[in-house]
Each structure stands twice: as C-alpha cells, then as structure tokens.
Amino acid sequence: MQFLIGLVTAVLVGYGWPCSAADLTATPAVQTGERLTYEIAWLNILAGTAVMEVVDGQSSGGNGQLRLVTTARSSPKVTMFYPVDNRVESLVDSQSFQSERMTFRRREGKRKNDFDYTFHHQEGTVTAVKDGVTETLPIPPGTLDPISCLYYVRSLLPMKPGTSQSLNVHHDKKNYKLEVRVEGMETIEGSWGKMEAARLLVVMPFQGIFLNQGNIRVWMANDNRRIPLRMKAKVIIGSIVADLVGGFPGSGLSK
To answer: I need a surface site. Which of 16, 18, 119, 157 has the fewest CB within 10 A?
Structure first.
C-alpha cells in the first residue's frame, strides 16, 4: 500500500488568483509556529501520522523565508509490513510562497530515495538531484513544489463554490498541471468539533509524494486560518482518510 501522507501535503493546489501585498499580510492564514498533526486511517485502521510545521527560514535578498516541514511515519501495525519514515522540507518566500528549494527524504518499505530541488525562476529551470544524479530541467512560469502549493492556496484561494484553477507543479523531475475546484460548503464534525468547511476536489494526474494517482477531496476550515480538517482519497481497496487531531482552529498555533 502506497502511504497516503500526500493527502496532507500536496492536495490543496492553486496558483494565479489575483492578490495584493495587503491580501497576504492583513490576516495571514499561515503563521510561523503552526504545527498541525493528522492521523491517517485505512479501513478503520490507524495507518500512520503526519505533522506539518511552519518555522522561520533565513532571509534572502531582503525577503523573509519560511521553512515548511512535513514528517510522516507509519503506525506500529503498518510498520511490521510496510515501514514509512518520510521527511519533506520546502524553503519558500514568506510573502509569495514561491518555492526556492525542496528536499525529500523518502523511506517507504524497501524504497529509499533522496531528492533535492533548487528552483531558478528567472532562468525558468530547476536543478534536480535524485539519489546523487543531477539534472537541470525546464519549468514553466509560476511553478510550485508539492509542499509550497498547499500554503499558497490556504492564503489566497477564494472559498467560493464554482471556483476552479489550474497550477503548474514540478514533481519527481516532471512538470504537471493540477486542477483544484471548490465544490461547495458544508459542516463537518471531528476532533475539532463542528465547523463549516469548503469542500475541494483536487484532480491529480500523477502519483503524489506519498499518494497513489487519483482525485482527492479536502475539507478546509472556512475561517481566516483555512486549515485542512479532513482529506480523503479512494484507493484500490476502500479509502484513506486523514483527520486533523492537533493544532485545532481557535486553539492557538500548535497543540
């Protein structure tokens, strides 16, 4: 079973909604110190946990940076037959969320890979290093990585039913077009209580960081933080569900 922490990291994608600097700074959805914890269930079995953190990065050219760190580990039961211990880190501009570098340490079953992507947006290229082999590849304008796009969309996506937007994303040395659609609003219940959420459909034409190819639905809190509350994807047998269990809306930046 391909481990589905990509539900947490790469499902909410969007690029190109018009905004101003004031839109990004007035009531920021993404704040330094945020720590979100998710439990991932498959067939009512706890498959693993994922933690998403936002920490300060170094300044670059006068602009601030953020480090977006996601770790994912399988539960003890799953580890017995399919151990997972992954870490993804994306360094982004704190205002635009444009990706500057992404590293991915993948440990899934017998699969072990190390990725390092450095983005050169002015040149329209990315330097990709996979398992020690380096290539320089072309990327289209506005390309994001699978981590930074989540935080970009949380900050700028209009939560209006019918909204639809495509995105350029670079993943595993290839460029892809993703599409996100806001399907509607609904109230959902979980560890966070009851909350109004926007239901989004993410059309994924490729295998995500930890996710089998296929569409995903995401329920994002309809407030100023826009935290993903629940994420769900069908797999060959049943569905995978990721639920927020720490870092709840209204309870501070972390828990």
So the answer is: 18
